[in-house]
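Weekly sync, protein design subgroup
Attendees: M.S., D.O., the rotation student, P.L. (late)

Item 1: inverse folding check
M.S. brought a backbone from last month's batch and wanted to see whether the design step gives back something sensible before we order anything. D.O. pointed out we never logged the input encoding, so this time it goes straight into the notes. Structure tokens as presented (252 positions):
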């Protein structure tokens, strides 16, 4: 998996422990760290972009191929997720240690997650909170230009919060390739993806192909007619935060 700033992967400690820990230890931010089984490529419900954010107040957000929010509880070795607009989901906890969590997300798939730091001052600062991920919710009807701009603006604002998370928690690297986006991020820059190269997951956020293409055209216009200024800093997090904030402002 490609990373920003430093090569390699996050330091993920996946110590297995047969003794199940106390319920209050489960809340936290969990990031996909690998599969423990052999899965066909067509099974993409949980990917490198997947995360699970369990809060102490019993609320959660997650993206296991589809973003949702709701409430959670734990009963013995079962994690119960109750999405706001869907039926409850029971997920078996296979192994759990302070920094590692293995979940059996369906009959064939066991997925490993690593605990990540998350010192967010407020919900608004949490890039994984529901208010910062409205762009991930698929449109239920066609969207006009202003609605498409808002979806793109929310997407860019997510990255501002995402890179700020890297600064706040002192992360040596953050994954910049797995999150579905129409913008491809490199170590020292970015480019707009042509429609043909858009991630399949990104396309699912739009009502139809026409709306998805319109969104790309809106961003293309910004790339072609506006100069994005690089912030004068050696901190790449701050550089990308500034760039995505400029994108967000230009989408208003």
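Designed sequence read out in the meeting:
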């Amino acid at each position: 998996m490609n990373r920003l700033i430093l090569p390699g992967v996050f330091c993920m400690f996946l110590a297995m422990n047969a003794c199940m820990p106390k319920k209050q230890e489960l809340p936290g931010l969990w990031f996909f760290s690998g599969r423990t089984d052999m899965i066909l490529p067509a099974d993409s419900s949980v990917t490198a972009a997947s995360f699970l954010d369990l809060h102490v107040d019993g609320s959660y957000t997650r993206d296991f191929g589809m973003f949702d929010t709701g409430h959670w509880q734990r009963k013995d070795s079962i994690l119960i997720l109750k999405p706001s607009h869907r039926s409850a989901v029971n997920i078996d906890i296979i192994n759990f240690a302070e920094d590692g969590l293995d979940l059996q997300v369906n009959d064939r798939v066991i997925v490993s997650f690593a605990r990540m730091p998350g010192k967010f001052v407020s919900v608004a600062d949490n890039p994984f909170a529901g208010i910062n991920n409205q762009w991930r919710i698929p449109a239920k009807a066609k969207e006009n230009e202003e609605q498409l701009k808002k979806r793109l603006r929310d997407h860019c604002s997510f990255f501002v919060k995402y890179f700020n998370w890297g600064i706040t928690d002192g992360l040596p690297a953050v994954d910049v390739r797995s999150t579905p986006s129409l913008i491809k991020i490199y170590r020292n820059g970015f480019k707009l993806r042509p429609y043909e190269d858009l991630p399949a997951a990104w396309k699912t956020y739009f009502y139809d192909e026409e709306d998805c293409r319109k969104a790309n055209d809106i961003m293309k216009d910004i790339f072609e007619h506006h100069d994005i200024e690089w912030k004068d800093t050696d901190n790449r997090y701050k550089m990308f935060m500034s760039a995505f904030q400029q994108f967000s402002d230009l989408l208003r």
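Discussion: The chain is about 25% helix and 25% strand. The longest helix spans residues 145-168.
Action: P.L. to compare against the previous round before Friday.
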